[in-house]
Amino acid sequence: MRVQSPGSRVQGPGSAAWRALLIGVASAILLLSSSLTASDVRLKDVVSLQGTTTSPLIGYGLVVGLNKTGDKKQTIFPSQTLANMLAQFGVAVPADAMKVENIAAVLVTSEMPAFGRPGARVDVTASSIGDARSLQGGTLLATPLRNTAGQIVAMAQGPLSVGGFGGGGAMSSVSVNHLTVGRVPNGAVIQVAAPNASMKTDALTFMLHDPDFSTATRVAAAINVELKTDAARALDSGSVMVQVPAEYKDTVPMLMARLEPLPIEVDAIARVVINERTGTVVVGGDVKVGAAAVAHGNLSVRISTRLQVSQPNAFSQGGTTQVVPQEQVDVREGANKLVTLEEGTTLEIVTRALNSLGATPRDIIAIMQALKAAGALRAEIVIL
Question: In Å, what is the CA distance from 220 to each residue of 52, 157, 201, 202, 325?
Fold first, then answer.
């Protein structure tokens, strides 16, 4: 095959230009494949800056405007709260004289951002603490939110979104999703700045989300390559300390913006996560199995009982009616085979072998635990 291009000589597969074209295409394919299979993640996705985590906020408030789905008479504190609030507006009503069903007492929770400033808004969640049936359509009244030290740092207010609906009458009802918990997007306004809002420091400490010595060492190496210094070093499996270069002493946010996109090759312990309540099994990609033989057989016993009534004929002089049970026992055993797993077997082979046994998630849980007990499973089992 030859290619003719205007203004150039005819070139065939053996020409230098043709070989250069093939090399370029091959290089592009290799780059594409490496970018698709790379396991690197950004630094910002595997670490967090020490001292810049969020802090919990909590408050007590009232939700009003409910359609007779609020707290009942036996829940006394909503009426007391409403009476105290009305007294501030000059309306004196005894709490024991109130009979309202359109209010509900709630606990309001939120999180203070690490660098929260006065005027910033955060989401809040309101959860019923009485016997209200639904918070649908309600409005959260102004509620002060306190930090762990008891200081008021934010004020929350706004209409609730419960993400569902409910309806029905006195004898029957229907509901979709959970109706006694609602959210107010951007419902709280921060009043006090977060105590760790300053970034002027000589050293930064990165905390790994999943502590691992290999990952911590790679984080420190990647930072040192980027900064062209030995400013970073791994303190332990969960933290890496970085000395702030002189040019970033007053501009630490710029240093963070430079380091956050760094690609990090993450390592992790081989794990098998099991949730016996739901029958969920999650096997990590690095899980391997040593030499072992697995057999899985089903022995099922089904006993069925049918009652028959025996009674005397009509107009007979004697006899009594008898109930005669007839039982049938059926025993079945599966015809599954013994499957041998070679040393160093990977996740793909284990999965294919267990599927060939016809194993359900419940069966796989028992098989994984048996392999671990036999010392053939090269992974840590985490039971939720």
Answer: 20, 44, 19, 17, 76
Q: What is the DSSP string of 177-221?
A: S-SSEEEEEEEEEE-S--TT-----SEEEEEESS--HHHHHHHHH
This prediction's pTM: 0.62
Residue 127: strand pairing partners:
107, 181
Residues 332 and 207 in one domain: no
CA–chain centroid gap for 251, Å, is: 34
**Domain enclosing residue 372, as ranges:** 272-309+322-383
Q: 103 near 141, Cβ under 8 Å? A: no
Joined together, the tokens standing for residue 6 give 């205007």
Distances in Å between the alpha carbon of 232 and those of 218, 221, 256, 341?
10, 7, 13, 44
pLDDT tens, position by position, 30-49: 343 333 334 578 999 999 88
Kindly report, residue by residue over 164-189, the tens digit of the pLDDT: 766 665 556 666 678 889 999 999 99
For residues 65 and 78, give the distance between their C-alpha atoms in angstroms, rounded to a whole number: 13
